[in-house]
Amino acid sequence: MAAAESPSTALRRRDLCSRGIRLAGKMRADVVDLLDAYVEQQGLDASASVAAVEGVPLAAVERWDEQTGTQRLLENLAAYRAFRALLAQMLEEQREQLGEADVGLGRALAAVLLQVSAFAYHLEELLRLESRGIPGEEEEEDGPPPPPRLSLFEQKLRGLGVLRELAQWAVRSVRDLRQLTKPSPATGAAPGLAESP
Amino acid sequence: IQYERVGADVTMKCGSMDWDAAVTWTVNGTDIDESHLNGSYLVLKNVGLSQSGQYSCYEGSSWHLKYQTYLRVGTPPKEPVLMCRSNNYPKGFYCSWHLPTPTYINNTFNISVIHGTKDMVCERDAIPKNRCHIRYLQLFSTVKYKVTLTVTNALGKNFTTLTFDEFAIVKPDPPESVVAKPVPNNPRRLEVSWQNPSSWPDPESFPLKFFLRYRPLILDQWQHVELSDGTSHTITDAYAGKEYIIQVAAKDSDIGTWSDWSVAVHATPWTEEPKHLTTEAQITETTSASTSSFMAPPTTKICDKGAVVGS
């Protein structure tokens, strides 16, 4: 059983979690707006089913309620790092395809990218709070291997898949962070990350 | 059993009897008029629901039973109406269905639920019979659910399909135990409290937000207030002395749609107890009370002493 958390750490954690919940909520709203604009601008069908796109982290999870706090944070962090790279790729492709034709969409994409980066940093802070090493920082410099060159239509579909998953992840993150702030049934105090389901 | 559609023409042979044999036909034990016979065949034109029954044919002289059937007149099923909803997110969701019009004969319903490529079990509820529920195996999925309901009876078959996202069908039940009370010494306040719907399994991890609407009975226009946490609210702009009707609705804080409105509750803000007046004061009181009339929200206090609480 991990040593009980110090009150200051618990307080700091609660503060980080509630700010993270607000950040994720705002991010989700912006991603949903961006998704609508993206679908329209790219001439896609909003109800189109998009097969899982390689490299896009899936928000879907089984036995979500059994995950520990650390698992939640680590999975969130890995996902938002991947989204950071994917959104940067989308932004680049956006500029290549359209140049300055649709500044609005580009700006919205950049804004979401910023929020994703901020949220990833927020998650790292939470992990640091638990004196847990931040995973994969060494690979951070060179980032994930560049995705294969896709056709224009494939790029559009991948973009749709990225934004859809990101919208789901934002909701999942809100739920995950709420779990972290939940008092554990036994002590009533917020459990250390390792224990908190 | 012989099934026939409403409006069909039905011909029944008397078993192995020849066409020209002498026979007697009965329905539910009553002789059928010979006008319905074509030789020994029974001919029923444009059958209606009322012609369902047990039809028997007897050989003329020996009264031997030569043929008997039960005729059930009905209709093939129309496209069923299917609805799926999650009122206990994130545990699962239920689907319920009905036929837009009766068929008057037995129908069999079969439901299939597919999530991506995975077949999911829809566990039938004992009651009501036209409902089953599915447990979420995965949460936060972007893969859509596809539910197909097929209805079959002896006269035909039909089906309907619903495709939806996990979040789209989340709709809590209305809030419960809504209570509204006056606030002593506050003629313009009402205290409203309620509880999360008992069907909502984990309000802590999946908090609900609420929508409160209230109006005086004498007005049609509702006033609304949205509350993102907590299960109580104090109305501070109530019209003094007027009876109010109040309802609450709930929604998951992040996804889905609003619940239906809760049961309506009524309450009237606190009003000052009428003092024991001397006769002279009563007379002046009564004349001023009869001229007072209801006005828009008062910025200055209007004492409506003439009105009797609760009349």
Task: Give a verbal description of the structure.
- Chain A: GO terms for molecular function: ciliary neurotrophic factor receptor binding; cytokine activity; growth factor activity.
- Chain A: This is Ciliary neurotrophic factor.
- Chain A: CNTF is a survival factor for various neuronal cell types. Seems to prevent the degeneration of motor axons after axotomy.
- The complex is a heterodimer of chains A (197) and B (311).
- Chain A has a domain of 125 residues: Up-down Bundle (Growth Hormone, Chain: A), CATH 1.20.1250.10.
- Helices cover 64% and strands 1% of the residues of chain A.
- Chain A has five helices and one strand, in the order H-E-H-H-H-H.
- Chain A is elongated and about 55 Å long.
- Chain B has a five-stranded mixed beta sheet with strand order 1-8-7-3-4, with no helix packed on it. Chain B has a four-stranded antiparallel beta sheet with strand order 9-10-14-13, with no helix packed on it. A four-stranded antiparallel beta sheet of chain B has the order 12-11-16-17, with no helix packed on it.
- The C terminus of chain B is likely disordered.
